[in-house]
Amino acid sequence: MTAGGAPTEPRWTLTDHHGRRVTERDFRGWYELVFFGFTHCRVVCPRALSKLTAVLDDIGELAERIQPLYISVDPKRDTPDVMRAFLEQNYPHFLGLTGSVEETEVARSAFRVFAGRREDPDDPDGYAVPHSALTYLIDPDGRYVTHFPDVAEADRIADSLKKLLC
């Protein structure tokens, strides 16, 4: 599997953080900002979610046309309840998506996202899940538009979204 880049017709079935089963078709009509991560992440995910939250706040009413999605790469720990508590407390713009290992692998593969479990003695559960750190933009018809690398500044992402949505 190639890590990163344009997804190939992303199709998936997952469970949102409210316990509802959803597919990529449920988000037709919305632009989607899609980021893969896990709730126990200590650096990359909080930084990315904070940056994307700032972007959504910066673009104001245009953000009402975007559904931000946070898809788990650690479904064993990231249950819908865990995702809901994490996102509602820290990143309320986002809808968390999780599922079985197989279901999340389908989503990861569709987006060409690398993720692999490794030992981490600093984590209470003893492991972390390093992963690709790209934010994907999908159009209202479910087609890939672009992606933003982790190093992209918030103002660059906000400017790109403003140009697209205006």
Your description of this structure?
This protein has about 170 residues and is an alpha+beta fold. The protein is about 30% helix and about 25% strand. The protein has helices at about 45-60, 80-90, 100-110, 155-165; strands spanning about 15, 20-25, 30-35, 65-70, 95-100, 120, 125-130, 135-140, 145-150. The protein has a seven-stranded mixed beta sheet with strand order 2-1-5-4-3-8-9. The chain has a two-stranded antiparallel ribbon with strand order 6-7. A hairpin with a 7-residue loop joins strand 6 (about 120) and strand 7 (about 125-130). Helix 1 packs across helix 4 (about 155-165). It is globular, with a radius of gyration of 15 Å. The protein starts with 12 loop residues before the first strand and ends with a helix.
Radius of gyration: 15 Å
* Order of H and E elements: EEEHEHEHEEEEH
Main sheet: strand order: 2-1-5-4-3-8-9
Count of DSSP H/I helices: 4
Descriptive key words:
166 residues, alpha+beta, seven-stranded mixed sheet, two-stranded antiparallel ribbon
How does the SSE layout of this entry go?
Layout: E1 13-16, E2 21-23, E3 31-37, H1 44-58, E4 66-72, H2 80-90, E5 95-98, H3 101-111, E6 118-119, E7 127-128, E8 134-138, E9 144-149, H4 154-165
Parallel strand pairs: 3-4, 4-5
Antiparallel strand pairs: 1-2, 1-5, 3-8, 6-7, 8-9
Helix pairs in contact: 1-4
